[in-house]
Amino acid sequence: MKYKLTLIYPGHKKNLRNDKKKRNKYPIPQLSLPTIAGLTDDRFEITIADDNIEDIDFEAKPDLVGITTMTALAPRAYEIAQEFRKKGVPVILGGIHASMLPEEASKYADCIVIGEAEDVWPAAMEDFIQGKLKKVYRGAGRHTLVNLPLPRLDLLKKDRYFSTSLMMASRGCPHDCHYCSVTTFWGRGFRYRPIPEVIEELKSLSGRIVFFVDDNLYGNKVYAKKLFREMIPLKKKWSCQGDSLIANDAELLKLAAESGCQWIFIGIESISEKNLAQMRKSFNKVKQYKGSFKKIHDAGINIFGSFIFGLAEDDKNVFKDTVDFAIDAKLDAANFYILTPLPGTKLFQEMKDAGRLLHTEWDKYDANHVVFKHPKLTSEELLSGLIFAYKYFYSISSISKRMLRTGHKRLVQSLILNHGRFLRRKRFETICRME
Fold first, then answer.
1. If we measure between CA atoms, which residue out of 229, 243, 163, 159 comes closest to residue 198?
2. Quick one: which of 63, 150, 75, 83 has its CA closest to 105?
C-alpha cells in the first residue's frame, strides 16, 4: 500500500477567476514542491497541484496534504488547508511565510515545517506513517547541499508552463538587503552544491533552456567561473538572477555568455544613491549602471531589470525618472514593484514598530499594492505611479527605442516579451487595483 500525498502550490487571487478557468500557460513553476517530492520516499504516491493553472480537487481524499506558501499566497493557502481538514485530511504547511510566522500558520495546519526541509521532511513522513506526526518540525541548520536528491520535475504538468527546466546551484546571499527575506530564510552567506552534481542534473534536464532559481548565481566568482566552464560543452541556454557586478569581471562575463547565458534578472531597485544606501544595497553604483549594462549587452546577454517604488527618498518624479533611465539604458525588459515589507525582514519590523503598516491583509503583500504609509506619497500616488511606469515602459515608443540598439543579439526574444507586456497593460492595472 502507498500513501497518497498531494503537494499544493496556492494560487494568487489574480489567477483565481470567478469562472474557475485558469490561464492556459503560466511562466514557470516554483521549484519548492518538486524538491519536497524528491525528498519523499517511495512509500508515497505523490501528486503536485498548482492552484494557478488548475482547480484543486477537494473531493479527492489523499492521506496527507502539503502546502507551501509565500506571504501574498497565505490567505489562499489557509483556505485550501481548511477545506481538506474539514474532510479529515491532515495538512502540513511550509514555505517562507509559515517559517516567518509559525504561530499564525499553525492555526490552519496539523503540522508546520519551519526553515529548510531537507533535514526534517523524511522524519516527518516517517512520523506520519507511524501516526506520530508532530505539530512542528524545525530545520536544525543550513544544509550542506551535498548529495541532494533530484527534484521531481516529472510531476509537473509540463504543458501548462512555458518551461519546467528549473534548477538550483546555491542558496543564501551575503548582502542582507533591508527589504529582503532571503538572508533570514537561507542565511547570510552563499552555500553551493558540488559542481559535478550540478552538471549531472543539467544533463538530466530535457530541452536546452534552463532557469536557475538562485538569488545570485555568480555571487561567488570563483565558483561561478568553474561552473560556467563545465557548462560550455552542454550547449544549454540559460537564465538567472544576479547583480550588475558581473560586468566588472570580463572573464566571468565572457564565460557566462559562452556557457549559454541569455537573460540576467538584475535587481536595480533605485536610481537614487541615498535609497540604495538605506536599503543596504550600496554595492549598486548608479553612475556605473549604464556602462555595466552596455558590457552585458555587448556580451550578447539580455537584461531584465527590477525597480522598487516607495523608498524613502522617492517623490512624484521618481516614476518618470526611473522609466526614462530604463529606456535610455535600453533594458530589454523590466518589472516595477511597490516596496513591500515582508514578515521576516528588518523593514517589516521597523514599519510595524513605527505604526506605518496599513494592514496585514497578506494577499495584498504582492508588491502591486500599497500596504504602508509613505512619508512623501499618498497610497494613490504610489499606485498610480506604478501603473504609469508599467504602461510607459511597455509603450510602443519605449519598446522601439530600447530594441533598436546596435548588435542586439536576442532581438526576437525581447520583442516577443515586450509585445506580450504591451498587450497586458490593461490587465496589469486591473491586478494592481484589485481589492
1. 229
2. 75
Q: How far is CA 274 from CA 74, 107, 345, 377, 385, in A?
A: 33, 41, 20, 17, 20
3-state secondary structure (DSSP) of residue 10: coil
Residues 6 or more apart in contact with residue 127 via CB below 8 angstroms: 133, 134
Residue 240 is classified by DSSP as E
Residue 190 to residues 26, 169, 376: CA-CA distances in angstroms?
A: 30, 10, 37
Q: What are phi and psi of 142, to 5 degrees?
A: -100, 125
For 72, other C-beta atoms within 10 Å of its C-beta total 23
Please give the Cα distance from 252 to 79 (Å, whole number). Answer: 46
Q: Which helix (H) or strand (E) holds 346?
A: helix 346-353
Maximal C-alpha separation, the chain: 65
The grid cell for 30 is 516554483
- Look up residue 18 and give its DSSP letter: T
Q: Are 89 and 62 in contact (CB under 8 A)?
A: yes
How is residue 47 annotated by DSSP?
A: E
- Sheet containing strand 44-50, edge to edge, reads 44-50, 3-9, 64-68, 91-94, 111-114, 136-138
Between CA 122 and CA 128 the distance in angstroms is 10
The fraction of the chain above a pLDDT of 70, given in percent, is: 93
Q: Are 117 and 39 in contact (CB under 8 A)?
A: yes
| pTM beyond 0.85, yes or no | yes
Over the stretch 327-382, which tens digit does the pLDDT of each residue have?
999 999 999 999 999 998 889 999 999 999 999 999 999 999 999 999 999 999 99
